[in-house]
């Protein structure tokens, strides 16, 4: 299971899209767009094609955004990364445009 203590969550609701801050996320936040199963470590994201976007996005999405421990957004370049993420992914449905 991913440790949610250094993440914010963006969900495609509201204008602009809503950000769920780290303390709320760690407190067990779940909704239609983001669900976790602590017993299995499973995380489910969902984004409707008509959802709202973040400022620099063209398509709606539900996503985790890395933060520092104090909640400030963490912006790192690909070449400076030293972590690895391994996951299994299942896509149940894609928009008719294929994007």
Outline of the structure:
The chain contains one helix and five strands. The chain is mainly beta and 99 residues long.
Notes on the structure:
- The protein has 99 residues and is mainly beta.
- It is 5% helix and 20% strand.
- It is built from 1 helix and 5 strands, in the order ββαβββ.
- The protein has one helix at 22-26, and strands at residues 7-11, 18-20, 34-37, 42-45, 63-66.
- The strands form 2 sheets. The chain has a 3-stranded antiparallel β-sheet with strand order 2-1-5. It has a two-stranded antiparallel sheet with strand order 3-4.
- β1 (7-11) and β2 (18-20) form a beta hairpin.
- The protein is globular.
- The two termini are 28 Å apart.
Please write out the topology:
Elements: E1 7-11, E2 18-20, H1 22-26, E3 34-37, E4 42-45, E5 63-66
Antiparallel strand pairs: 1-2, 1-5, 3-4
Instruction: Say how many strands there are.
Output: 5
Stretches where pLDDT is under 50 for at least 5 consecutive residues are: none
H-E string: EEHEEE
Percent in helix: under 10%
Largest sheet: 3 strands, antiparallel
Strand-pairing-aware structural class = mainly beta
User: What fraction of residues sit in β-strands?
Assistant: 15-25%
Q: Tags for this entry?
A:
globular, 99 residues, 1 helix, three-stranded antiparallel beta sheet, mainly beta, single chain
